[in-house]
Amino acid sequence: MNQPVRVKVWNEYRHEQQIEWIGKIYPDGIHGAIAAGLREYPDLEVTTATLDEPEHGLTEEALAACDVLLWWGHMAHHEVSDDVVARVQKRVLEGMGLIVLHSGHFSKIFRTLMGTSCALDWRVADERERLWNIEPGHPITAGIGPFIEMPNSEMYGERFDIPTPDKLIFISWFEGGEVFRSGCCWERGHGRIFYFSPGHETYPVYYHPQIRRVLANAVHWAAPRILAPHECHQMDPRETIPERPIDTSAMGNAAPPPPEK
To answer: How does DSSP classify residue 202?
Structure first.
């Protein structure tokens, strides 16, 4: 029997506690809504963590027991410890999957892994968003259909300062006229990364059945194929290398004298 995929949903959990009407949209927190959708899949073992827990809930032990980490942050990116960011980055390079959501584009961990500013254009105008599925054969878009229609959304627009995705699977169109690369895949080290843009805290995005399906598909896609550290080793040769003189003829008069034996 296959082992379950161990999933951790991380959320800074500030908007829901500080703004009453957002708390009513997400009474269990954004992390709670995302986790509830993932728990509909029996092969996923889902836990949560938040910013104000010790070490943000992302201790060495917690990450060692995590196959895929989902990340939602917005107003408190600067409060995330650099040590924890380095710990998460190391785990991704070793093979853990990472799914970065919405305003997590500006998180320390996403910018660290992308190596760019990850800046974009934005506005909040309650406008319609249509996410076009441009890779219907990709595992993340299984069962989605040609597009996802969101009646109210925060606009994210180009230019999005990210490295060219290894695979672009969603492009969003907004009622105000902008477009955006809203579903992007990369590999870093042994790990897989998916960025998915819908999820503004003022809208009930994470209850949308197609959004929940995308997240579950992404967890299955990002689950580790291998978990192994990246280390530099000085290696002994596997075959016998015969002794031979160093050929310095191409250096002409600049050739150094042969080494003394």
So the answer is: T
